[in-house]
Amino acid sequence: MAASSSFATPVSLGAPRRAWLTDLPVLLVAVVWGASYLAAKGITTTHTVIAVLVLRFAVVLPVLVVAGWARLRALSAAQWRGAGTLGLILGGIFLLETYGVVHTSATNAGLIISLTMIFTPLAEAAVTRVGPPRAFLGAAALSVAGVVLLTQGAGFTTPSLGDLLMLLAALARTVHVLAMSRIKAVRSADSLSLTTVQLGSAVAVFAVIAAFPGTGASPWAVALDFGPREWAGLLFLSVFCTLFAFFVQMWAVRRTSPSRVSLLLGTEPLWAAAAGIAIAGDRPGLLGLAGAILVLAGTSWGRRAAGRDAG
């Protein structure tokens, strides 16, 4: 979806300010998503993946339904179908990411998921038949190079099933961002209603999977076993990393380009490293710090390139 004309008016003093009004909330989403790795690690095991996903989405869903009931009833059948489709994609993303992290190293996961920064502008170019600017591709490549340095401290492992799942998750993220901008029916609906339907579709997918034997502990059993620390982590994942994140993403992608949103969200590994340093005591070393600088530089460069191209 094309960005607003404010990005294409370099002589307007208000244009950069308006651009940041859209970009800053998206950047905050990347920050909370980066912190979500530590939060999820503290409350999830290999046997509770599905249960935690059900709880994460179900906690906020009743609040959304009550708050937006009138607007939900006003949605057309096409809008319900569009938002439901986005929810199915969203559910697939979380399943792929969660199981992928379980079956691969954090280093490989962080690197592979960052490839969304490359996949999105290429996919958008294929759909619109308009090639991305060379500066944008260069900025994305610079950011990925930064992620390589940022995540290489633990060393790389032999490609595994988890690596493939994370690669599929990166592709699914690209599909999700593009779908939000390309499904015409959802463009005219309010973000709260679309977010509610989307999350409802995702939690339905997780609930169906949880009903099958052999998929791990039940959501009810996991909820009863949680203490205050686990519930605090779950609420952080639910309210900030889910509700806030996807509301902002749907709001922003209709005001700027999918590539611009994806590039900003691509700083997630940087914030994950920052959370690890500040909270878990990780030490990235000189190469890791150099990688962080490259991610920031690439993101800044890409924002400018996307802004010029939007005009």
How would you describe this protein?
- This is DMT family transporter.
- It is found in: Cell membrane.
- The protein has 311 residues and is an all-alpha fold.
- It has one domain (13-310).
- Helix content is 77%, strand content 0%.
- The protein is built from 15 helices and no strands.
- It has helices at 14-43, 49-58, 61-67, 69-74, 77-102, 106-113, 116-128, 134-151, 161-182, 191-210, 219-225, 228-253, 258-265, 268-280, 285-310.
- Helix 2 (49-58) crosses helix 12 (228-253), helix 7 (116-128) runs antiparallel to helix 13 (258-265) and helix 8 (134-151) runs antiparallel to helix 15 (285-310).
- It is globular.
- The protein starts with 13 loop residues before the first helix and ends with a helix.
Any descriptors?
77% helix; mainly alpha; EmrE-like; membrane; globular; transmembrane helix; 311 residues; 15 helices
What's the SSE blueprint?
Layout: H1 14-43, H2 49-58, H3 61-67, H4 69-74, H5 77-102, H6 106-113, H7 116-128, H8 134-151, H9 161-182, H10 191-210, H11 219-225, H12 228-253, H13 258-265, H14 268-280, H15 285-310
Helix pairs in contact: 1-12, 1-14, 2-10, 2-11, 2-12, 5-9, 5-10, 6-8, 6-9, 7-9, 7-13, 8-15, 10-12, 13-15
Transmembrane segments: 20-40, 46-70, 82-102, 108-128, 135-155, 161-180, 192-212, 232-251, 263-280, 286-302
Protein name: DMT family transporter
Family: Belongs to the EamA transporter family.
